């Protein structure tokens, strides 16, 4: 097992782990509840971490996580309903129409 990354909080660690699992990687979140002892141990040692089970997949998992963390920010207006869509969304959340290509 090797550490892929350290997360600033448990919510992001869990989100990243779930996204990596969807990408086909066997990962786990370590130190999920260590924040309760921050102060008794150095604060950076209490942050949650995402670890991969197969050491040979470490580089591929880090590359996928990098892609997921740096999705393009887009701003577009839905042609169907006129809703302003921001972020990495490719579908309108108001009417469900796809982003124009």
Defining traits:
5 strands; 2 helices; two-stranded antiparallel ribbon; Alpha-Beta Plaits; alpha+beta; 2 domains; 21% strand; 101 residues
SSE ordering: EHEEHEE
Let me know the number of strands: 5
The CATH architecture category of the largest domain equals 2-Layer Sandwich
The average pLDDT is 93
Domains (count): 2
Our measurement of the CA-to-CA distance between the termini, rounded to an integer number of angstroms, reads 41 Å
Q: Gyration radius, to the nearest Å? A: 18 Å
Shape: elongated
Poorly predicted ranges: none
Structural class: alpha+beta
Number of helices: 2
CATH class of the largest domain: Alpha Beta
Helix content: 10-25%
Largest sheet: 3 strands, antiparallel
Strand arrangement, largest sheet? 1-3-2
The CATH topology of the largest domain: Alpha-Beta Plaits
Q: What fraction of the residues are assigned to beta strands by DSSP?
A: 15-25%
């Amino acid at each position: 097992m090797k550490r892929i990354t350290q997360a600033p909080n448990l919510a992001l660690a869990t989100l990243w782990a779930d996204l990596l699992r969807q990408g086909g990687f066997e990962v786990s979140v370590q130190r999920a509840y260590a924040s309760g002892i921050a102060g008794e141990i150095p604060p950076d040692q209490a942050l949650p971490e995402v670890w991969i089970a197969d050491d040979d997949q470490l580089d591929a998992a880090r590359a996928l996580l990098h892609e997921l963390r740096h999705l393009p920010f887009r701003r577009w207006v839905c042609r169907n309903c006129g809703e302003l869509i921001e972020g990495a969304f490719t579908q309108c959340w108001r009417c469900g129409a796809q982003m124009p290509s």
